[in-house]
Write a structure and sequence with these properties.
The protein has 748 residues and is α/β, with parallel strands linked by helices. Helix content is 49%, strand content 11%.
Length: 748
């Protein structure tokens, strides 16, 4: 396999884990080209580890460009793929601008490099963005132009490329075939930070720990000094080294003999030197500056304990923690980010961040007990051998990259899944389930929120599902039952209060379940929420911007789910109060497993989906399409009510676009029309924007120009009807669109 790897800077003063990971891939038989965003600084080659020298990775396989060269070299690519690069550049730069001028400038700097490399380098079997930030953006732009049909993977580490300023991150994650990360904490972080697409990204997240060549880390837990505390890393604010100095002062006051060595450089060095003097511990502190890695490893082997007092999330799982564990040095570190992944179960000592007293007590305890230090070191070394072996982890990563496939038609398996749901047997003629890529089908079903329904459609009495598909389905069923329990309790609370309510797009999805339970209540005041959650543990969540503007409130509840309570309003910004009243009046009980919640009528559910499509560019949502098509195929919808309600709320064009879209999707899958022509004709006059919508596999509906036309038509209808409050809310839509520009770009 020939792999293109994009990184931020190589060679670099510190690139230890990058070099280790690349060497492990080379050892596993992967052919590598490295594309470094920063220009070449040849003086940095002297800091390179011996395990990735010119004999292992020839220097001509490491590519650099200066700015002028990248701008000149980009022109052939731009002329060849103008449509692709122009759309990418607009979306990427818009996203970068939201994070500030510096991220915008850095993003603009990397794009010409990607375009130039796309013109000069082809023939790769896989593209790997080793960092998620600017290197990830460069890799994305390169892949889109040079190798769009091969797999694309992105590796997300920590603060520099995941936690802070995640430029265009949502789109890169959706676009990637694999999302690789270094610790379990990052998996949970991604599913929470990108909750709206968690179901789509979770199936392709893989944890790959950065490894160590354990043959070069001699385990020597004995013969250590009694009082030497070591801190290794960049002297930056987020490392929390000021808390270590304050802990050292406390230890000195308690009569504990302790010496603190700092290895590293950084912007906080002078402040830390001044703080040590202010605390009166200058004689107990030594700043050794930056050291080559062999000397760092030697310092670790001579220390009594290594302390890493991070003051919050910044690092994912610091390499120095693993390295100290490997040589037998006990570690005291903050209980943040991925550090507990390494130090839990007695493999180290965890303390709350910023707690100087707890830090001092933990250091004193480890210094005072040699037997405890040896026991911690032994457990830590076993964990390193189990989890952080460089060659074993590299082989696993290579296997993951080799086994990844990228379908030329990205939505192919979405359509197969919809075909399975709509037709029995499937209408695909010679479709043979034995020839399917089950991993792709499972991912498509999970992404579309319809895994259980797809499994029910394909499972045969005499033929079991593939093991991973069956396991994922069982987990989805378990989550669905948890949602059923929550819905039952919420229903009981609303009934106890005599509160008119309806669960939106929840019962319709069963036996699948969405992570967010969408609850519409008639009471416009958020004060009612306290009564609803009187017997249900819940924590207020900040929620999405447009939800807050619409007066909706989000709560975190049990099982990792959320409840979104809408207070008497529907629509992107709560512009549809009248429709909310109509929906509540027409809502009826609908069975959902062991619960029977109040749900919208079929007509109102169809209108809800159309409203959802109105100002967004959502993806091909399998669950919604299946529910809507099944409702239409039942032939019981009151189209007079649908048209009258759409007319009164100003969304006739949106509903017209949506029913035409449903009809086109249905024809693409089954070869038959979904709707009778009179129904289509009724909406056709106001549904011209559908002509600009893509095929059934297009991820956007409708396209931007059409969405703008729909918005203006809706705003005009609202003004003509005299609904001034709704019109005022609608006028904020462009502001909201500007604030979220670049975050809803379709995957290719």
């Amino acid at each position: 396999m020939k792999l293109a790897v994009f990184t931020s800077r190589y060679p670099a003063q510190v690139a230890t884990f990058f070099e280790r990971d690349m060497r492990s891939l080379l050892e596993a038989g992967v052919d590598i080209d490295v594309f470094s965003i920063a220009p070449l600084d040849a003086s940095l080659w002297k800091h390179s580890l011996a395990l990735l020298g010119p004999d292992q990775l020839p220097r001509d396989r490491i590519h650099h460009l200066r700015l002028g060269e990248s701008v000149r070299g980009a022109m052939p690519t731009l002329r060849r793929g103008a449509r692709t690069w122009l759309g990418d550049a607009r979306a990427i730069l818009a996203s970068a601008l939201r994070h500030g001028v510096v991220p915008f400038a850095k993003t603009a700097y990397v794009l010409p490099k990607a375009w130039t490399w796309a013109a000069r380098h082809t023939g790769y079997d896989h593209v790997l963005a080793y960092w998620g930030n600017y290197a990830g953006t460069c890799a994305y732009a390169f892949h889109r132009l040079a190798t769009p049909d091969v797999p694309f993977s992105i590796w997300l580490h920590a603060g520099t490329d995941l936690y802070f300023r995640p430029v265009f991150m949502r789109d890169k994650m959706l676009y990637a075939d694999n999302i690789i990360t270094c610790c379990d904490f990052n998996v949970n972080y991604m599913t929470q930070a990108f909750a709206d697409v968690a179901s789509q990204i979770t199936p392709k997240i893989f944890v790959c720990h950065h490894g160590l060549d354990l043959g070069t880390f001699t385990y020597q837990p004995d013969s250590r000094p009694a009082n030497r505390v070591l801190a290794v890393g960049r002297l930056a604010k987020e490392k929390g080294y000021e808390y270590l100095l304050r802990a050292a002062q406390i230890l000195k006051a308690r009569g504990v003999d302790v010496v603190v060595d700092f290895v590293g450089q950084g912007p906080e060095e002078q402040n830390l030197v001044a703080l040590a003097a202010e605390l009166g511990i200058t004689d107990r502190v030594q700043f050794r500056g930056w050291l080559p890695f062999p000397e760092v490893r030697k310092a670790m082997s001579e220390a009594t304990v290594l302390v890493h007092p991070s003051n919050g999330i910044g690092d994912g799982l610091p390499n120095v923690v693993r390295e100290a564990m490997a040589v037998g040095t006990p570690v005291v570190a903050s209980d943040v980010a991925g550090i507990p992944d390494a130090l839990s179960d007695g493999c180290g000592v965890l303390v709350p961040p910023k707690d100087v007293g707890a830090l001092a007590t933990s250091i004193a305890s480890v210094l005072a007990d040699p037997a405890q230090r040896v026991a911690i070191a032994a457990r830590a070394r076993r964990r390193v051998e189990e989890r952080y072996d460089l060659w074993r982890n590299g082989a696993r990563l290579a296997q993951l990259l080799r086994s990844t496939r990228r379908s030329p038609a990205k939505r192919f398996h979405d359509l197969i899944a919809l075909d399975l749901l709509l037709t029995q047997p499937p209408s695909g003629g010679g479709l043979d389930l034995n020839d399917l890529d089950w991993s792709e089908l499972r991912t498509a079903a999970q992404r579309g929120g319809a895994l259980v329904r797809v499994a029910d459609a394909i499972e045969q009495p005499r033929e079991a599902l593939p093991p991973r598909f069956a396991a994922a389905t069982a987990e989805a069923c378990r989550r669905a039952q948890q949602v059923v329990d929550l819905v039952d309790r919420l229903s009981a609370a609303c009934n106890r209060l005599g509160l008119p309510h309806a669960f939106l797009r929840t019962a319709e999805c069963y036996p699948d379940a969405q992570r967010t339970i969408d609850l519409l209540v008639s009471d416009p005041s958020v004060n009612i929420d306290a009564e609803i959650f009187r017997d249900i543990p819940a924590v207020t969540h900040r929620g999405l911007l447009h939800h807050r503007l619409a007066g909706a409130t989000t709560y975190r509840v049990a099982y990792g789910n959320r409840v979104l309570i809408r207070h008497g309003r529907l629509g992107r910004l709560g512009e549809h109060a009248r429709f909310a009243r109509l929906l509540l009046a027409r809502a009826r009980p609908r069975p959902m497993g062991t619960a029977t919640p109040i749900a919208p009528s079929g007509e109102d559910h169809l209108l809800l989906l159309a409203i959802h499509q109105l100002y967004t560019r959502p993806e091909f949502r399998l669950s919604d399409l299946h529910c809507a098509i099944e409702a239409v195929r039942a032939r019981t919808l009151d189209w007079d009510y649908v048209f009258a309600t759409a007319l009164s709320t100003g969304i006739v064009p949106a509903v017209g676009c949506y029913v035409q879209y449903l009809d086109r999707v249905h024809q693409s899958v089954t070869g038959r029309a979904l709707l009778p022509q009179p129904v289509l004709d009724r909406f056709a006059a106001d549904a011209r924007p559908i002509r600009q919508a893509g095929t059934a596999q297009d991820a956007r509906f409708p396209r931007t120009r059409a969405a703008a036309r729909l918005y203006l038509q809706n705003l005009r209808a609202t003004l003509e009807s005299g609904r001034w409050h709704s019109a005022l809310r609608l006028s904020l839509i462009p502001v909201l669109a500007a604030l979220t520009a670049g975050t809803r770009r379709r995957p290719a």
